[in-house]
Design a protein that fits this description.
single chain; 87 residues
Amino acid sequence: MGKKSNSLVAFALGAATGAAALFLSKKENREKAETAVKTASKEATKTAKKARKTVRNKVAKAKKTVKKTQTAARKASSAAKKVAKNQ
């Protein structure tokens, strides 16, 4: 059973390779494929930049939140010390 599975994968891979070779044998198809690859590459670059920017913004927002929380905790601690000192 395992050998049949392996041979089936090899057959499918060979068929896909053959189809790609047949498709790319024409110059027009090679040009179309090249254009598609360039477009996909540009889109991938844009998406990666957008993702980096989103991550950067979320990290900056998280840092601001942490800083605000630390400031609030410091103020609360200071106020508690003053109250304790006055009693």
